[in-house]
Amino acid sequence: MVHAQHRQTVHARSDKMKECKASAKDKKGDERKKFMRDRLKD
Hints:
Helices cover 81% and strands 0% of the residues. The protein has 42 residues and is mainly α. It has one domain (2-40).
């Protein structure tokens, strides 16, 4: 059961990262870093 919860958490983080990368596609350098950091810190 713990393993299933861990997998769901990892999968959710992975999905969030994919969405962030797609949204940050047009940003470069420090602007992109700040955008990604702000979006992923929750």
